[in-house]
Specification:
mainly beta; Immunoglobulin-like; four-stranded antiparallel sheet
């Protein structure tokens, strides 16, 4: 499709899909033609039946999540999430959210390039993200343990034997992006 777009003298190719393989994030250009990946919300299957509340996006094109890989003690590393950029096709604008705009983020500390396995989970953007969980469980939660999950910086972990980690970021609208890093 990119070759056809280049032959037709297009400036850009927009690929639309309900989901992408992790390797798709590595392919973003062929020759002079950039490839933008638009993830279609699954609700698009029933778009005519949905009420437009303005609280979600049927199409979302992602930029890069803003991630730093930090060195930690004992040859370990940490991941710091700074934010995520989301393109809004209705307005044509790119909204850059800080970590406060992120609902949750996950780290696969030994990504195998086939499936994402959540090994670390973090929840941001709420003053007390565990209040509803405490209410639902009708139990006390070890506050110190849960506070480690309300962070924009991961707990330290060993560098993986695979040499790759993956970070998945989800904002408050349910827009999701994943990026693979070689470490």
């Amino acid at each position: 499709a990119v070759r056809e777009a280049a032959d037709a003298d297009f400036d850009v190719l927009v690929a639309c899909a309900f989901n992408y393989d992790a390797h798709a994030s590595e392919f973003n250009k062929l020759g002079r033609v950039p490839v933008l990946k638009a993830r279609m919300n699954a609700d698009l299957h029933m778009a005519d039946d949905l009420k437009n509340t303005g609280k979600g996006n049927l199409f979302v094109i992602f930029g890069e999540p803003d991630i730093d890989i930090l060195d930690a003690e004992d040859s370990q590393i940490q991941v710091k999430v700074n934010g995520v950029d989301v393109f809004h096709p209705n307005t044509g604008e790119i909204r850059s959210d800080s970590a406060d705009g992120i609902a949750c983020w996950f780290v696969d500390t030994d990504y195998n390039e086939e499936s994402f396995f959540v090994r670390h989970a973090y929840f941001l953007g709420a003053s007390d993200p565990y209040k509803s969980l405490r209410t639902t469980l009708k139990a006390e939660i070890n506050q110190e343990a849960w506070e480690t999950l309300h962070s924009d910086t991961s707990r330290p972990f060993a560098k993986p034997t695979s040499g790759r980690i993956a970070v998945k970021v989800i904002n408050h609208l349910g827009d999701e992006v994943m990026k693979v890093f070689r470490v």
